[in-house]
């Protein structure tokens, strides 16, 4: 097994470690709310355990045609490694599959000098990994560009987003952008819903700067607002015209605890 390959960090915890069980669960989540499959520029999807956020992720991916190349942007929960980390080689292992990095796209994105080749940031980070079982079930020929992002200014978000858009456009082929994020953390359900929709209205409005400023100003605990801002900047540069909130939910819908919930949202940008 190549040293460059990244092993699963949360298999058996966030989703099943058994291949058949994983396929059964993901297929069930993708078909629970049947939708017409259409092209998209960008998806926003949650990254919690499938028992909690899998329904939102499944409903979101169900209506999206996944092309062979996907740029996945996730937050850096661990604080390890570079602030803006990309991998340009190797692959990501999940139960039953190894998903290769799209080296040609990744190397061009890294070539802009805004991202650092860094395996440490990716090694234990779950936000990208949790998207992979959905994406590879939609397209078994999947290749990915994994980008893990820590805190940064809006200007830096915009620069990275525009650089990604330039590379995607120059390749002249379809590339889907995926922003991995959960919403508010550990708030009463009604307060979480109210605050989350302050952020969501800016995503639906294709307003990355408004999203960034709202999260900062209102101190929202949306863990992936940086990757979402970056991806939304890229999607706008690629000609995004509309955004749809597919589904919103919170952990209390499953646990019954409505006093300390985590919010989950799935959106599709076209």
Structure, explained:
With 270 residues, the protein is of the alpha/beta class. The protein has one domain: 3-Layer(aba) Sandwich (Protocatechuate 4,5-dioxygenase, Chain B), CATH 3.40.830.10. Helices cover 41% and strands 21% of the residues. It is built from 11 helices and 11 strands. The protein has helices at 19-31, 50-62, 103-110, 120-123, 126-129, 132-138, 154-171, 189-204, 208-218, 225-237, 252-255; strands at 42-45, 69-75, 84-86, 91-94, 97-100, 116-117, 143-149, 175-180, 185-187, 243-250, 261-269. The strands form 2 sheets. Strands 1, 2, 3, 6, 7, 8, 9, 10 and 11 form a 9-stranded mixed β-sheet that branches. α1 (19-31) packs across α2, α7 (154-171) crosses α10 and α8 packs antiparallel against α9 (208-218). It is globular. It starts with 18 loop residues before the first helix and ends with a strand. The model has no long low-confidence stretch (mean pLDDT 97).
Number of strands: 11
User: Which H/E pattern describes the elements?
Assistant: HEHEEEEHEHHHEHEEHHHEHE
**Mean of all residue-level pLDDT scores:** 97
Largest sheet: 9 strands, mixed
Helix % is 40-55%
Looking at the overall shape, the CATH architecture is 3-Layer(aba) Sandwich
Q: What is the strand content?
A: 15-25%
CATH class: Alpha Beta
Q: Could you please say which CATH topology applies here?
A: Protocatechuate 4,5-dioxygenase, Chain B
Query: What structural class do you assign from the helix and strand content?
Result: alpha/beta
State the fourth-level CATH superfamily.
LigB-like
Radius of gyration: 17 Å
User: Which regions are unreliable across 5 or more consecutive residues at pLDDT < 50?
Assistant: none
Coarse morphology: globular
Q: Estimate nothing, just give the exact number of structural domains.
A: 1
| Continuous helix count | 11
Distance between the termini: 38 Å
